[in-house]
Amino acid sequence: MSETSWSPPTLLVTVDLVILTLRAGELNVLLVERGVEPYQGEMALPGGFLEHDGEDLLAAAHRELDEEANLAGAVLHLEQLGAYGDPSRDPRGRVVSVAHLAIAPGLPEPEAGSDAAGARWQPVGAVLSGEVRLAFDHLRILADGVERARAKLEHTALATAFCGETFTISELQQVYEAVWGVEVDPRNFYRKVQGVDGFIVPDGHKATRGRPARLFRAGARASLHPPIVRPG
Amino acid sequence: MSETSWSPPTLLVTVDLVILTLRAGELNVLLVERGVEPYQGEMALPGGFLEHDGEDLLAAAHRELDEEANLAGAVLHLEQLGAYGDPSRDPRGRVVSVAHLAIAPGLPEPEAGSDAAGARWQPVGAVLSGEVRLAFDHLRILADGVERARAKLEHTALATAFCGETFTISELQQVYEAVWGVEVDPRNFYRKVQGVDGFIVPDGHKATRGRPARLFRAGARASLHPPIVRPG
DNA sequence: CGAATAGTGTCTATAAGACATTATACT
DNA sequence: AGTATAATGTCTTATAGACACTATTCG
User: Fold this and answer.
1) A39 with A89: CB under 8 angstroms?
2) pTM score, two decimals?
3) Full set of structural domains in chain B with CATH
4) Mean pLDDT score of chain A, rounded to an integer?
C-alpha cells in the first residue's frame, strides 16, 4: 500500500449515550424521539456529532448529556462503551459512533421545552424485548451497555452511582436486583457489602415506617475485593 | 443547538492493533517503525486509515493485520478495545483511532521485504517500562490491551488463542504466567483447568524429555465456570 | 402490643491456596 | 539406575448459598 499523494477518507463521527437510571425499582434508559430523517419519529439513544475543536470523546459525551438530557451536573459515572462502525448502520452513509455509558441516580421526567424535549425514560426490559423499537443499531448498543453495567456491578462500586448521596443497604440491594434482573438474599447481601472494605461508609440514619435504617454513602474504594458476583 | 443548514465536521479514523503473542515465555507485542512523519523512525502500533467502502471496523482490523503484519490466516482472536479521540493525540489534527486487540500463537520474526518490513516483536515489559518509546498515545493503548488480555484470561478461554492447535497443560500455564506476570502453582492449576468443563479437551500425547505430556486442544466453552482468577 | 421494616447468626458446600510425592519415559 | 518432566492427593482456610430469628421504631 503506497501512501504517496493519497489522502485518506474523512468521515462522520457521532457520540451516542446509554443513560441508565432506576425508576420505581426498574432499570430505565433515556430515549429521544428523532425530529429529522432518517428514522424520523422513532426512538433513539441521545447523541450527536463530534465537534472537531479540541474536544475529547468523553467531553463530547458530557456535552451531549447536557444538551440532550439536561443532566450536566447530576451524573456520577460516564465511560466509553466502544465504537460502532458497521457500514450499513446509518442510511446517510458512513458514520462511526462512539457509544458511552452514563449512570444517573433516580430522576424525574425530563422537562419539555428544553433541548431535551421528546426525551423519555423507558423501561429497559420493554426495549430489549422489542416492544419499543430503536433507530439505527441502537438496540445492540443498549444491550452492550446493559451488559457492561451488569458486569461492572460485580467488580466495581458502580451500584452507588445509581443511588443518591446517601442510601440504605436495602436500596443498594434493589439496584443490584433491578440491573441484574434477579432476586438477591438480603442476609448474604448485607454480609457481602459490609465485608468489602471501603465500599460503603456509614452516614447517619433514616427514619422509616419500622426500624430506622442505617444510611451509607459511597466509600473511596472503586474496585470490590472480594467481588459481589451475580448468580448463574 | 440548531441543525438547520449546518453540516457536521468530518474527520479521520484509524484502526490500530495491539497484537500480542508469546515468544520464549515472554509476552510480546508487534511494533512497526514509522516511515513517515509524524514520529518518523519511532516505533508504533500497526494500523492504518479506515477505508470508507463498506468495510466494518473489525474487517478493517483484519485487513491491517494482513497488510502490516502478514497475519491474515494465523489469528485466533480479534476484538475491539475502544476508541481513542484525545484532540492532541495526533499532531496532524483530529484523528480518532479505534484500537483492536489481536492474539496470535507463537510466531517467527516477521519477514522483511513485505509490507511488514520494519515490523518487530518487542517484549511488552520493555515497552510498558518506557525502555522502548511509542508514538502517539500508543503506550496507553497498549497498556489497555494488556490489561484487557489479563482480565479476559480469567473468565474466557482466551489463553488457548496464545497456543497452537494443540498444547500441554504446562504450556497453557506458561501463557497465564507470562500474561499475568506472576507464577502459578502447577498442582492447583491442573486441578482448576481440568475442573472447567469444556475448556480443554484431550488430543493425544506429546513426546518430551521425561514423561510424555498429554496434549489438549481448545474446547467448545468460551466462558470459564468457575473462572481462573489471578492472585492479588 | 402489634405491625412493619432493619439487621444478624449458623450451617453446609464449594473453591482456593499451600505443600510433597508418585508416575512415566528416555539415556 | 538415574534423570527429567508430568501428573496427582490432602489438608486448611475462605467464600458462597440456603435458611429463620431477633431488634427497633411507630401507631
Assistant:
1) no
2) 0.95
3) 12-138 (3.90.79.10), 154-218 (1.10.10.10)
4) 92
